[in-house]
Amino acid sequence: MKTVLFDLDGTLLPMDQDEFANGYFRFLVRKMEPYGYEGRALIKTVWGGTAAMVKNDGSRTNEEAFWRFFADTYGEDSLKDRALFEEFYATDFICAKDFCGFTPRATEAVRRAKELGGRAVLATNPIFPDTATRSRIDWAGLDPEDFELYTTYENIGWCKPNPEYFREIMRRLDLRPEDCIMVGNDADEDMAAEKTGMKVFLLTDCLINKSGADIDKWPHGGFGELIAFIESELGA
Predict the structure, then answer these.
(1) Whether residues 172 and 85 fall in one domain
(2) Residue-wise pLDDT tens digits, 141-188
């Protein structure tokens, strides 16, 4: 049985990631400034916590890595404000949908893989909490139940492009790399799955290629090409 791992941001959920991040941070700053968090310093700290998650080595969850960085920056007493962040992701974060696009072909790609007997995993970089991840899944026109696993900062201790992120998914679901396909829009983060032996497909609708990689070395294209690739790999 083949398993298709789908990225979310820029893949199933079309977006310009810079536009999304800038908009999302505006809402976060608006929420937190009344509690004494200066905007620029807060954004810098969130990016620093994100870097700590990307560097995480699996010895703790990404959630723990983020909040350790946050407390090291603002002091241990700041951890009491975690509830404010949780409230933000349950309420104001929903407004960030305005900075995302939508395509029904995302739902088509996931459901086509499952119609052909495949398994679907949401391999979104786990830097957001579960609440925010479920919202973004909904914005893409999908349900968390469409996936056997979706990664969040609470449930894993690795990030892309670390190959251990993909290996951990395989360990949890008892998968072999030769039976997996990673689909994503980031030539560096998502195509890193190839290092584990997985097949890959680079979705170019919202392409990110910061390293200037030659994308012709991977199967690539829009959703039409992706669905045809899934069908060929899953034996339609």
Answers:
(1) no
(2) 999 999 999 999 999 999 999 999 999 999 999 999 999 999 999 999
